[in-house]
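Ticket reopened. Same input as before:
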Amino acid sequence: MKKTVFFLLSILVYSCNPEVISEEDNYIDLTYKEGEENLVSHLSIKAFAADKAFGRGIPELSDLELAFFGVGNAMFDQSWVSAPATTTSRDGLGPIFNARACSACHFRDGRGKPLLETGKFSEGFLIRLSNGNNPITGPIPFLNYGNQLQDNSNLGIDKEGEINVKFKIITGSYPDGNLYELRKPIYSIFNENYESISEAKTSPRIGQQVIGMGFIDALSDSSILANADEFDSDNDGISGRANYVWNIKEHKSTIGKFGWKANQPSLEQQIAGAFYGDMGLTSTLFPQENCPKGIDCSKISNGNNEGEFVEISDKQMSRMLVYMSAISVPIRRNFDTYDVLKGKELFNNLGCIKCHATNFTTSYFELLPQLSNVKIHPFSDFLLHDMGDDLADNRADFLANGNEWRTQPLWGLGMIEFVNGHTFLLHDGRARNIEEAILWHGGEAEAPKENFMNLSAEKRNQLLSYLSSV
Amino acid sequence: MSLTISYDKDHHKDNEHKEVSDFIETYAKIVSANYKDTYKTAVTMQNKINSFLTSPSQSTLKDAKKSWLYARNFYGQTEAYREANGPIDNEDLLGIEGQINAWPLDEGYIDYVATNSSGTKIIQNGLIGDTSFELTELNIIAKNEEGKDDNISTGWHTIEFLLWGQDLNYNPNSRTSDNFATSGNRPFTDFITENFASRRKNYLKIITNLLIKNLKDLNDTWAEEGSYRITFENLSEDEALTNILNGIGFISNGEVALERLDPAIDEGQENEHSCFSDNTNKDLWANVTGINNIINGSYTSENGVIISGTSLINIVKEKNTYTANNLKNKAEDTLVKLNNLLGLYKSFDEIVSTETLGSGGPAGNLSSALKVQGSAISDAAATLGVNITIN
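Engineering reply: fixed in the latest deploy. New output:
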């Protein structure tokens, strides 16, 4: 009823004063929801300089929480070196590794870059490996190589191998005749140093921006399962399901929340896994050195400090966990313009929002209680979806099959270019911008993608404006 | 009667308005004078570094170091103008903070580093030792912040590393790493006979010239009639206030307390700001003073002239005496805690070597005071009707 009145009003305004602006203003008033730009409610932060846009903490932190945040931030930025070294707090890298610092894959707490040229230094790209999958214990490590290819190593140790990349160009057109071009990367591993790797299942991955992670960690199982519809009982073509993955601390399978295939159950395990797999740093959750074949790691130096048995001490881990949990999400920019709000309407009507869900409230979060019971808009359901053959990695990961991916949270999407100077998206960075990322959608997302393609160019741009504002 | 009241109210309003615009003007004057001093003292440093590079010796190296230390006193105060949407770090403007003062840095990315605690064994994996890397300004700029956050190739701290070298704190008698009295002690022969000496010279010259160029740009754009000065003067009062206060609030809490003090307290010298020269205490002085300059509306320039005007405390007082007094107290307390630390006459790495988070030592106390000061700035902003974020 109210809507009709406004509609009439807008026609009246339009007819008295033939300026389209008034109609647009009315539309803005009608569709803008107070506070929608704050994706983590009162704990959202305003982004200023590019350097800090993704690295700012939630506004409510105590003196000691702030201190832990600061220490974690320093640890995140700084390089680790091989032991022994003049530093005692930053040694233990390797023997094999992908990166020397967290920030090497998440520059400015942001997003990594894909490998664009064979032999180039990786800035947030790695290849996962396996020899099949066990639904309970996860991907089976590939003989001599484990779960990922470490393409770097300490002096005197061979790296596992090098990565070759070439691209296949795929062209297509919109129903309105406009052309587009997609670029599919094809990776292969060469110069492998620990016997043949050709039979390994592989999956390329890009480091993601690390914002809002504490809020995701604070989501209850039931809030995630509320969106699940494994057998598509509502017949909308979308059948999200949760991944259940091995939780080291709890000694059982629990819902996977983090990673491109939702293969990590908690923020702590995600972080410890990255320290271990990407940098060769042991911790309480991953105490065994990742030791290449033929090397006796008990005979080479490690970065354990006196009286400790791991390289990332529990003390350091506690700081890192506070840092990672407390990074907020930037307030959206340009959230109340006509085009952006039109784009929001399209996002909802085309069905994007079915997976890129915005309706969550966090549960009790012990580490930082201020993260509890907060309304958040992550633009993800954290569930697995079949995304079609073109995007498939054909490598199973716990319950996720080779076609399934976790819905990527979109918060921060429009700021990646500002922070990281690039717009490469999707699990291996193949999409060169948001539009290409949409066009790569298939499987369960085939229909919404086709809906997008059928839009006029003007409307497609409105949707892209909305996504850039997120 | 009612007329009188409304007159008073309006008068009060006008007064408030004038005070706010005076405060914004004072800020611009202080920023401009501070960047001018920074540029001037850095040019002196450039001359000293040139003399050193022309004839490397113990004494020319010493002069170059001295001039670096002196110029830092002024640059450090300008950090209060970061995170304020201004030219220093707004990428739509100059956006050169990362080129000027990026930190912490991985010194192994630039030049040789020690692999044992006495420094007798070294490894060269740096840009200086990589002869396939052509040393040009553009190439070195391209390498800055390439790959990871601490791959730093330019700016104050790179110059510092090339003048001082690593600070190993090595005690040759006890063979322990607790000799805090010394700072880095790079031999001047690194620029004559050591491997890659001529590349090292060339490198230092290029990045010194680049720093001067960057500082000149900041000076020019903030000078009267400078391009950003004009933009700034045309900002709405709310926008200008938001920018100014977000800057000093964040630098107080998010930068100096969280990035420069707490990590050093928790994990030691690896996280010390000027770890090569042991100038960290003076850096802290400059950072704290820079923030205080705006709170109190006064800056003492290099030639001794004091530039002063309406302070933050003044304009908050117009709105709410309690908030203004609170800000004043917290700012004074921060200075007290700073002076406690400076009064120990110990180097920063020694001070933090005996502190832990929450132990209430001098560095921790200064950090806590800076956090509380940040909150007081945030409260002041709210009183003035604007929102800022300080974490």
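Chain B touches chain A through 51 residues (CB under 8 Å). Residues 1-7 of chain B have pLDDT under 50 and may be disordered. Please confirm and we'll close it.
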